[in-house]
Amino acid sequence: MLDMKKYLLPLLCVAALLIFSCCKDDEAPDDDDPTGCSPATGSLTDIVYEPVAYNFITPALFPPANLPPGNPLTNEGVELGRRLFYDPLLSADSTMSCASCHNPASSFNDNVAFPIGIDGNAGPRSTMTLLNMAFVPNNEFNWDGKSASLTEQAIEPVINELELHEDWENVECKLRNHTMYPELFRKAFGISDKRDITRELAAKALAQFELTLVSSNSKFDRVIRAEPGQFFEENEQRGWKLFQAEGTEPGIDDAQCWHCHSAGQYKNIFTNGGFFNNGLDSVPNLSDFTDLGRGGVTGNIADNGKFKSPSLRNVALTAPYMHDGRFNTLEEVMNAYGSGGHPAPNVDAFVPLIQLDSAEKADIIALLHTLTDTTFTKNPAYQNPF
Predict the structure, then answer these.
(1) Which end of the chain is more exposed for a tag (fewer CB within 10 A), N or C?
(2) 142 contacts 124 by C-beta, under 8 angstroms
(3) What is the model's pLDDT at position 252?
(4) What is the fold of 28-61+72-214?
């Protein structure tokens, strides 16, 4: 009769050895299967942490940038953010990334009325462009201003069931186990161990990248900067006069654009960052809006139906328009505004004053096309790094 103890003990030792060798904490899973995730630890202190400050340049005639003091821009942080921005690892099924709805060719827009998430379901509002986020007045982001910082805003799309539909704990685990990201997080934020990779640091990196997305080299910019050989065509010049008119120049109608899309120091950003009811819908009561907009955030019924004034830069590239993508062309937008909009108890006072003929609307559209900046959409620093 065999002595089972004699054979059983070696077998148990081999099994234990196999188990522990397969679960080594510092071993990253295959990149082809980044979702295979187990707790990861491992010192990163052998990697040099010497961050280099990012050279952020505020363009001429722009207001001061609103760069967050708690998240200083570095070359390493921006590069990490760019990789995270384009990496489908942030989604539950690794099929979508931030760039899926923020395509640089479309000025970081997606050109659909309602973006589609990984489960095939549509979101409630259109995608907003990410250009010139460093100059957004009041640090209020999204159509309703719900997010008070880009870092805060970056958290939401990952867990939103209509977007990337993932859990941040899973994302953190995937990042910690990844062959590349622990080193990049170390270089960007000086973490000492893989366990120090968190959603907060990932969001900070995403915010750093988004803050570098600066558009300032359109035809409009070159004309305003009085660069040699740069001039508005006659229709563009008429459009610019209409756009900024105050009703004081004889023969020039006040198109009322200036009040929402430029004001004070923000005149070259083409938004004052405010929230307005711009006369899209006729409702008898403030509670009748299908989408409460800003009111859903503040709880103030007077804010119902108000939405953020978006920047008009690269607007020719970001159709369809409005928070619900109801207008497919700039011509449709101008036709809606040109007739004074629809009545509502809190419609902005300037909207009913808009009265434009077909020639004036065409001139304003000509001006809007001068805001197209293809050096921004093609900037290599903003493209997919993979």
Answers:
(1) N
(2) no
(3) 79
(4) Cytochrome Bc1 Complex; Chain D, domain 2 (1.10.760)
